[in-house]
């Protein structure tokens, strides 16, 4: 049995924060408190700065002091290495993120030492065929850093490459439209195209790292030496590890402890050998926690760039009831998206208006139930039922009210499944999630003389992403739909 705690801050407008799933109720409460502190880290830091105190010798530096120290003396910053500087410079030169296989390190053993070469195939002209050899070093990591340092010096000394690096910023892509369409497409395609369920060992020898966060039987760590791999940016650079992954299986594990393990990679990122799954193919609790964090890591940059994120709760989501209507997902589930200031959490079903477009729909449970209850052989598709919902102005066709909680069945005018037309909306987007396939269709006007019913209405069935990796982009001006498909490369 596992526990999940939710802490409510009555002094802050009753904000709720949900913790991770834990084996012990006390640990679950601590996790919820940590999420509350994390979500309000700005307030916590402000309170600390209000009380000026002399820092004792040996006390840890604050984030601002660490950043200042790194700027003043970058040579002492362990995060700034020749390899990271080389990658950053090459990305500025080519004007995009580097892909897997575009940086090739080949390390050879010579007697008791190592020498590495590096080739960067994405560089323009003959630079893409050039290879740089480093000095003889005691281990592979230092050998690769030596090769990267020599390559970095040559690239910095070339005026044409430096001109490309200086001119790559902006590139005249404009505001808004590029991010909304092209950047999101590249980001989604790089993420989904690089996903794979296959596991692959990265380094044959066990590596050593420090535990930075421990949750009882799993946690996250950082290696003592930098790992150069395309998946290292996933989960914010942290490596997921299970207690059974640690060599020697110590009785206790704590934050700050040095551990030894073998490093693997799969579609979820870097981690240890263990990837346990629960019954019926569902993700185990630890996997679910990691998946939620990865969703937050992926969506947060969209919010930071100015895109408003509307996230609706659905079946099986964390922190919400299984009964309909469902409350919004707690903000603690998406701490990074929350801090972007562009996160809107919606209940299920939801009904809101965006720039004259009424967006109304649900995550698909009513249509799935109606489909199961349909007579045998009846050709009833999700799109047919969605159009029927529009004509009846009710989101749950054939929905048996006995499956709803008693207090969730008010009078008709307050029914959460009733579609209430908004006078300020010129168009309507009616949607249903978790459908068998992607479909969209312009719906006819209502069978009534009511002026509000004669609007442009687009009905959209959104497929399950794990079965049909597709996203649908709807133009709010003309209700046209663009379908983007993804595939595993």
UniProtKB/TrEMBL annotation:
One GO BP: DNA strand elongation involved in DNA replication
Domain DRBM: 82-154
Pfam families assigned to the protein according to its UniProt record, in alphabetical order: DNA_pol_E_B, dsrm
GO terms of molecular function: DNA binding
Residue ranges of domain DNA polymerase alpha/delta/epsilon subunit B in the record: 283-423
Biased amino acid composition, Basic and acidic residues: 63-74
Keywords: DNA replication
GO cellular component: delta DNA polymerase complex
Region of interest (Disordered), residue spans: 48-79
Family membership: Belongs to the DNA polymerase delta/II small subunit family.
UniProt name for this protein: DRBM domain-containing protein
Organism listed in the record: Cladocopium goreaui
Organism lineage: Eukaryota, Sar, Alveolata, Dinophyceae, Suessiales
